[in-house]
Amino acid sequence: MTTPVTIIGAGLGGLTLARVLHVHGVPATIYEADASPTARAQGGMLDIHDYNGRLAVEAAGLMDGFRAIVLDGRQAMRFLAPDGTLLFEKTDDGTGGRPEVQRGDLRRLLIDSLPAGTVRWGRRVDAVGTLGDGRHEVRFADGSTVVTGLLVGADGAWSKVRPLLTGALPEYAGEAFVETYLYDASVRHPEQAALVGAGTMFAPADGAAITAHRESGDTLHAYVALTRPLDWFDTVDFTDRAAATARIAREFDGWAPQLTALITACDSPPVLRPHHTLPLGLRWDRVPGVTLVGDAAHLVPPNGEGANLAMLDGAELGRAVAAHPGDAETALSEYEAAMFPRTAEVPQGEDLMASLFGDNPPDAVRAFVAEQGEVR
């Protein structure tokens, strides 16, 4: 069996691609390793930016559904020093360009917008091979295979499709998150709830940071960032919640107790999330019949852009395929020509502050970031 458009991976990029193709009358099939849409947790909140992620939602024709899942007030922002001093605060007046949604809600919106059977669940890819003439064979763990007319790897950091295009492999980026959750925060953790506020709280320092979001259901979701060698985390026993949280908290000695309580008072086991990256500006020569979207193409450590870029990749590729019926190579060439430069730069330093605060970051924040090396 040869399928016209075969997408590996039912993340946001692959689902957006399938939806935009559907809008334009182009059939597609997604193969996903997870057994069902609810087989695993889908992460926390996403801020969907008006200059990339929102454009993808519009291309998918899902703005009404998107507005219905936006969490009001979550664009509020607080910036704290490690001693708990408030450096900057911004409320959410509803006019910002980064509305927040739960990743799981956005994924469900996309899944529900597709014809029944578009996503084939429980289909883990073992290998992909080239057959020539732009066709590829995908072999699954259950022994079945499909032959593709156009193959898209939307299968994330450890993509099985990427080796068809490049030998580049993800490398550890030198930093990891340890994720924690505090539930029923306003009642059970009122001090931390007040500290985080209505939206997102940042408390950075040199080599360490604590960020927390107020998610739906009065949940605080914290991302504890540590710049350490990967083998340093091997010394932490993440199977022992008390020991793990105590060990991670020791890296924040001298910080305000109300901040470190986002680690020590967590209501779920801490989860380690090492950050990996592909070479920035990765490109490949055109290979007939195959391309990549999202982290499979341009993996970088979390910077607020990953999900947005993955969705825009899917939308742009879908529109290119629809614009060139029967001419996949022109579509893929146009898509890659736009995607490569769009994903070649990662906001950092002044650019990152500008993306968060606009063209004039608050003086207190600017000074604090400049002095991070002296904080710990």
From TrEMBL:
Its EC number is 1.14.13.-. InterPro entries: FAD-bd, FAD/NAD-bd_sf, TetX_monooxygenase. FAD binds at residues 47, 103, 295. NADPH binds at residue 40. The keyword Flavoprotein applies. It is an enzyme of class 1 (oxidoreductase). Transmembrane segments: none annotated. Keywords: Cytoplasm, FAD, Flavoprotein, Monooxygenase, NADP, Nucleotide-binding, Oxidoreductase. Its cofactor is FAD. It catalyses: a tetracycline + NADPH + O2 + H(+) = an 11a-hydroxytetracycline + NADP(+) + H2O. Residues 3-337 form the FAD-binding domain. It is found in: Cytoplasm. It comes from the Bacteria. An FAD-requiring monooxygenase active on some tetracycline antibiotic derivatives, which leads to their inactivation. Hydroxylates carbon 11a of tetracycline and some analogs. PANTHER family: FAD DEPENDENT OXIDOREDUCTASE DOMAIN-CONTAINING PROTEIN (PTHR46972:SF1), MONOOXYGENASE ASQM-RELATED (PTHR46972). HAMAP family: TetX_monooxygenase (MF_00845). Consists of an N-terminal FAD-binding domain with a Rossman fold and a C-terminal substrate-binding domain. Monomer. Belongs to the aromatic-ring hydroxylase family. TetX subfamily. This is Flavin-dependent monooxygenase.
